[in-house]
Amino acid sequence: GEDVEQSLFLSVREGDSSVINCTYTDSSSTYLYWYKQEPGAGLQLLTYIFSNMDMKQDQRLTVLLNKKDKHLSLRIADTQTGDSAIYFCAEKGNNRLAFGKGNQVVVIP
Amino acid sequence: DVKVTQSSRYLVKRTGEKVFLECVQDMDHENMFWYRQDPGLGLRLIYFSYDVKMKEKGDIPEGYSVSREKKERFSLILESASTNQTSMYLCASSLAGVLSNQPQHFGDGTRLSIL
Lengths: 109, 115
Hints:
The complex is a heterodimer. By secondary structure, chain A is mainly β.
């Protein structure tokens, strides 16, 4: 079955870059996702990457995928206070997603 | 934009009550999901459904049941609520497709407290 691991907490100064890491176990995963959860809200899809890609850039977000090591990362450039949230990575299995436990990012002004 | 609507943001019920959590999506999605979210445990899948009247157990189905009578609506039922079911409940939906990119879209969540 799928298992997704994330570190739990990251603090970063406003304007710096943030990097959130995630490891997964299912090598047959076709898509990997990053979701953002702001306080008191549901999960919002941020970006995704197809498993045959190494990198995807979307404005301030850069996703890196190392299939060999089953490692996924999300880099947020020029981190803003509005980026304070919990970030979840997820891998796609059989019509369902396996989520990591989330990584709380706190942006210090 | 996909809209997933959960009927209540906050709900307070008593131990032993039968509790219904409702979720409606407006994008004709085949798949619908119920998760609970607890600090330090992330999201855990309770039940999901591929189609009307279809349901599959997730990772933690004990104490819950579901109903999918219409494609757009997926209900989570706590048959006899207990205090350990106090949690944030999240509903999600997606199009079908094992190999294609079909991300899940989430509602805003229902924070349920069982007293």
